[in-house]
């Protein structure tokens, strides 16, 4: 360390850098994580930040409590007024079509060998949105080969049994979510799908024709939540999507669950980084503004205008930085 002047200076610079790195890694507190998460969220993810970092559904004190908001099932037998949820179907990328409601997303990913449906909505929406939506888009529901369920809550999985029984589609779900699904009574809304493909903690890949979907196990929101990395085509360019399969903290408050959620977000961030993802998607339109973006994608784009879903890798990674920090903040706040 005491060699010539220049090396000595370099050593000081390196040592100072190391010191500042160390101080940046001082033990995180709920407040420091809140600040970091807010910064990471920026404007793009402000709504999600407020939902999970400021007023999480499972907040111990002063929150909404329980699993009310974004709940998993509407009141038994009730169908909300169609005017409050129905959305037209939209072609959003060359190979990806929005067939969701104004509130919940469902997507049709087209391949050279058929269609993959990602999430299936409440039972009352599967027919008007997915089945009729595909036909409006000149796609054939009989071409549905796979149905990917991000997690076993009614707002995403109640349509699965119909697509399986009517079209022979194979339903894909995480191990733990199959376990809870198969315990439902036969009279459950939408019926109960039969177990087809079950994905464990290591994830898997699903290939159909010219398209490969990387399935990443991201337990937390539910024990079997799955997330996805897949390609979309946009005017001759290929973009990679990171699709986050579970977001809200509407699970019982337990330190371990927040840790699992946090680690899942980091794992998905690494998969997104490795794939060079520049599109972030979610399965509630409030988290990725899917309904707005689907409609914006219909408008003509001038030279230099980017697709309403296209961002850059750094922006995609900021989403996961925020979700991981919010989960860690809640973990620290939980006894
Ligand atoms: Zn859910």
Helix content: 25-40%
Assembly classification: single chain
Bound molecules: zinc ion
Spatial ordering of strands, largest sheet: 1-2-3-4-5-6-7
Distance between the termini: 47 Å
User: Rounded to an integer, what's the Rg over CA atoms?
Assistant: 21 Å
* N to C succession of SSEs: HHHEEEEHEHHEHEEEEEHEHHH
SSE-based structural type:
alpha/beta
The average pLDDT score comes to 90
Please summarize the sheet with the most strands: 7 strands, mixed
β-sheet strand percentage:
15-25%
Number of strands: 12
Number of contiguous helices: 11
Shape: globular
Low-confidence stretches: 1-22, 62-72
Explain how this protein is built.
With 335 residues, this protein is of the alpha/beta class. The protein is built from eleven helices and twelve strands. The strands form two sheets. The protein has a seven-stranded mixed beta sheet with strand order 1-2-3-4-5-6-7, sandwiched between helices. Strands 8-9-10-11-12 form a five-stranded mixed beta sheet. Helix 8 packs antiparallel against helix 11. The relative contact order is 0.15. The model is unreliable at 1-22 and 62-72 (pLDDT under 50). Bound molecules: zinc ion. Zinc ion (ZN) is lined by residues 151, 153, 221, 246.
Please outline the helices and strands.
Elements: H1 5-24, H2 30-41, H3 46-54, E1 90-93, E2 96-98, E3 107-111, E4 114-118, H4 123-136, E5 144-148, H5 154-157, H6 160-167, E6 170-174, H7 175-181, E7 197-199, E8 204-208, E9 211-217, E10 226-234, E11 237-243, H8 255-275, E12 279-281, H9 285-288, H10 290-296, H11 313-333
Helix pairs in contact: 2-3, 2-11, 3-11, 8-11
The site of zinc ion has 4 residues, from loops.
């Amino acid at each position: 360390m005491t060699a010539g002047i220049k090396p000595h200076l370099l050593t000081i610079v390196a040592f100072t850098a190391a010191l500042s790195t160390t101080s940046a890694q001082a033990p995180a507190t709920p407040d420091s994580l809140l600040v970091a998460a807010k910064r990471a969220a920026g404007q793009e993810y402000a709504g999600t930040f407020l939902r999970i970092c400021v007023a999480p559904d499972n907040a111990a004190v002063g929150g909404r409590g329980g699993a009310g908001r974004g709940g998993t099932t509407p009141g038994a037998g009730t169908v909300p007024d169609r005017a409050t949820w129905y959305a037209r179907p939209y072609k959003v990328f060359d190979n990806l079509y929005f067939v969701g409601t104004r509130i919940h997303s469902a997507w049709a990913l087209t391949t050279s060998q058929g269609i993959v449906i990602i999430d299936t909505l409440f039972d009352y929406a599967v027919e008007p949105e997915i089945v009729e939506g595909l036909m409006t888009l000149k796609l054939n529901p009989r071409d549905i080969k796979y149905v990917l369920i991000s997690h076993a809550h009614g707002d995403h999985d109640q349509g699965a049994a119909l697509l399986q029984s009517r079209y022979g589609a194979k339903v894909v779900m995480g191990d733990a979510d199959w376990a809870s699904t198969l315990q439902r009574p036969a009279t459950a809304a939408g019926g109960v799908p039969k177990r087809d493909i079950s994905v464990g903690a290591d994830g898997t890949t699903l290939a159909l024709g010219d398209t490969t979907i990387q399935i990443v196990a991201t337990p937390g929101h539910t024990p079997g939540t799955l997330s996805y990395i897949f390609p979309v085509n946009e005017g001759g360019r290929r973009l990679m999507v990171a699709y986050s399969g579970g977001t809200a903290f509407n699970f019982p408050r337990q330190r371990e669950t927040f840790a699992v959620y946090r680690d899942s977000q980091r794992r998905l961030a690494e998969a997104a980084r490795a794939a060079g993802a520049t599109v972030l998607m979610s399965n509630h339109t409030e988290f990725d503004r899917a309904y707005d973006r689907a409609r914006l994608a219909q408008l003509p784009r001038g030279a230099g205008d980017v697709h309403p879903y296209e961002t850059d890798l750094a922006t995609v990674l900021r989403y996961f930085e925020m979700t991981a920090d919010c989960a860690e903040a809640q973990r620290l706040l939980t006894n």
